[in-house]
Amino acid sequence: MRARAYDSNTNSYFKSEVFAEINMGWYEKQLLLVPSDSGAHVRFFDYFDKSDPKEPKVLINMITPAGPAEEKWIYEHSGCVDTQLAAFAGLLNKGIRFFAYSGYPWIFADKSLMVELLNGSVIPVKGSVFEDKIFDSKISDWNYVETQSDVDFLLHQAYSFHDSVLKNLEYTSGAYVNDDKVMSPMNCIRQVIMRIDSQLCQPVEMVFEGVTALNLRPAGDNYSADIFEASLFVKDAAVFFCDEKINDIDETYDCITWIKAYSLRWRFIG
């Protein structure tokens, strides 16, 4: 599972792979890989910012729900938020709750590692069990937009989308009702796929994941749908794309199409 997370130690956002989730609700934490120039490490992060209990803010935002297909997550629970998982009773520092685990089995099976992590330790990737387990869930043959250089590359390759049109757009939420009319209401995908056709380059397929907002404004009657110049920004490990030339992110525009998401990948298609 890939996510975008906030690190209060550095006051910055980063993208990461999620190795495990513990507990639920108010007590949820996620085990994240933290990239760093001084050496990547792994530690638990709170899911909620609890500084305002009346309006807790989510600190970890899902981008894609799946990790390596060959590694299945396991689920263990004690059945009660006040009861520690039996294998860890008496091993954790005072005040640490551990009543549910969802994640890779090799982590849960390493009791000493789990105790270190649960008690707040930071585990360097180099020299640890994680060194041979690091993976990247990015899809090959796609270009990912995560830096200003990535933005510049896409806009250069697509001629800033000059003389282009939005051919089609598809949104997938992840929520559904099955054949037995049982509802699964969680938006676990939140993906928008755009195809933009151009007179200057091959058609561009853009996949936005972890979508938080979409403002779709088709051209009105007696107006042309062509794009003169598009804009793309990266900020706080998120992207903002719109079909007009603007100088900064602005969600107040109500007459142009724009989209905000935690991830963008793209490719030319024939």
SSE layout and pairing:
Layout: E1 2-7, E2 12-22, E3 29-34, E4 41-46, E5 48-49, E6 57-58, E7 60-64, E8 74-77, E9 100-103, H1 105-109, H2 111-118, E10 123-124, E11 143-144, H3 148-157, E12 164-172, E13 176-177, E14 183-184, E15 191-198, E16 204-215, E17 231-235, E18 238-242, E19 258-268
Antiparallel strand pairs: 1-2, 1-7, 2-3, 2-9, 3-4, 4-10, 5-6, 8-9, 11-19, 12-15, 13-14, 15-16, 16-19, 17-18, 18-19
How would you describe this structure in keywords?
single chain; 270 residues; mainly beta; 2 domains; eight-stranded antiparallel beta sheet; seven-stranded antiparallel beta sheet; 3 helices; 9% helix; elongated
Question: How would you characterize the overall build of this protein?
Answer:
There is one protein chain. The protein is mostly beta strands. The protein folds into two domains: 2-132, no CATH class; 143-268, no CATH class. It has three helices and 19 strands. Strands 1, 2, 3, 4, 7, 8, 9 and 10 form an eight-stranded antiparallel β-sheet that branches. Strand 17 (231-235) and strand 18 form a beta hairpin. The protein is elongated, with a radius of gyration of 21 Å. The two termini are 30 Å apart. The mean pLDDT is 93.
